[in-house]
Design a protein that fits this description.
Layout (H helix, E strand, L loop, with lengths): L8 E6 L10 E4 L6 E4 L1 E7 L2 E7 L3 E2 L8 E7 L6 H14 L3 E8 L2 E9 L13 H18 L7 E5 L6 E5 L8
Parallel strand pairs: 7-8
Antiparallel strand pairs: 1-4, 2-3, 4-5, 6-7, 8-9, 10-11
Length: 179
């Protein structure tokens, strides 16, 4: 049977700075115990699931006749790796952006820039990944979470040991409840 990939639907909610910070999206960093605020919250629909994602991607608006793009800063002497490419691609997909402007710098000075279209990022810089495989993996993980995160208003921790393919899900409301 032929597989197809559902196209996501996007809706962006900009966080506005205020003295109380009440409209900012807040996420607790479990490892460091500090609060982080996202610049915007993005509603992302994926395979009949509605997700609310926090995003700190810097977005440059080029006006009403041109599409928005993300802006990335890279060290001119460093090689862009596969993880960075995947990060850029996912951020562009989640934020519905058509391209990324990569600004190369060294010791605070700009040494050049490059515009990379979102669909070219998976094969950019000598590394490659298959977008369909990434989305299939994401779908599988989200289905697993939907089936196992069943406690109303529950708090869960999803982790994977380094070098392992096995995901572990813990319900933090009940430390003895391991899925």
């Amino acid at each position: 049977p032929q597989q197809h990939l559902d196209l996501p639907i996007f809706q962006e909610h900009e966080g506005r700075s205020s003295s109380s910070g009440s409209r900012d999206r807040r996420v607790q960093d479990l490892q460091g115990g500090r609060a982080n605020f996202f610049r915007r919250a993005v509603h992302f629909q994926f395979n009949q699931l509605n997700l609310l994602l926090g995003s700190d991607t810097v977005i440059f608006n080029r006006g009403p006749r041109r599409s928005k793009l993300s802006l990335r800063l890279e060290d001119a002497d460093a090689q862009v790796n596969q993880q960075t490419c995947l990060d850029y691609w996912l951020d562009n997909i989640f934020n519905n952006l058509s391209e990324t402007a990569v600004c190369y710098h060294k010791e605070g000075r700009v040494h050049g820039y490059q515009l990379v279209r979102t669909e070219e990022i998976p094969k950019w810089s000598g590394f490659s990944f298959e977008p369909k495989a990434v989305m299939e993996s994401a779908s599988s993980i989200l289905q697993f979470l939907q089936q196992n995160c069943t406690k109303e208003a529950g708090t869960y921790w999803l982790c994977r040991a380094e070098g392992s393919d096995e995901l572990q899900l813990f319900c933090l409301d009940d430390a003895d409840n391991k899925h």
